[in-house]
Amino acid sequence: KNEVEQSPQNLTAQEGEFITINCSYSVGISALHWLQQHPGGGIVSLFMLSSGKKKHGRLIATINIQEKHSSLHITASHPRDSAVYICAADRDDKIIFGKGTRLHILP
Amino acid sequence: TAGITQAPTSQILAAGRSMTLRCTQDMRHNAMYWYRQDLGLGLRLIHYSNTAGTTGKGEVPDGYSVSRANTDDFPLTLASAVPSQTSVYFCASSPAGGFGYGYTFGSGTRLTVV
Fold this sequence. Notes:
The complex is a heterodimer of chains A (107) and B (114). Chain A is mainly beta and 107 residues long. Chain A has strands at residues 4-7, 10-14, 19-25, 31-37, 43-49, 52-56, 59-64, 69-74, 83-90, 95-97, 101-106.
């Protein structure tokens, strides 16, 4: 079993829909990261979380340390949100990446 | 624009040949990393350097070597390329050792070994 599991693997939605991407991890962490990778390949850091919730524009990330679970939400989704979203568990000694969720927003 | 520059952006390489992937950052970050990204496997750490003059092995170091002569540069060398090294390679950096302090990724190098 992978130490970081993301779901779903692929997600297609209509523009305007509320999107949720889930990340579960089985290891102790100091932080949880959400990354965005656009079709061109570049990887951008979205959030670093150690507790609670963070919001940036239409993106919201939450984490439940007790349940070892994090979610990334996108409100009022737009085709430009189409990308691969990756969560990563930060253990200080190493980073464990999820395999990513491929999101496609249809206009 | 401050950040990480990787070169080349893509390369086709004959098996058995050597190649160096270049990575330069201008943020004075102490720590630098090399990852490979393969379909279905996610990002995997090849080598890392917590500070100039030191390097360490990651999850998949075999067939790769690195050096860190100064703060800015962290080249990755494939001494004798094999087809299984076909991948997209990302360089990353962070202010201090450990991702927890924030980090930046380069735009990647797509390598095809034939």
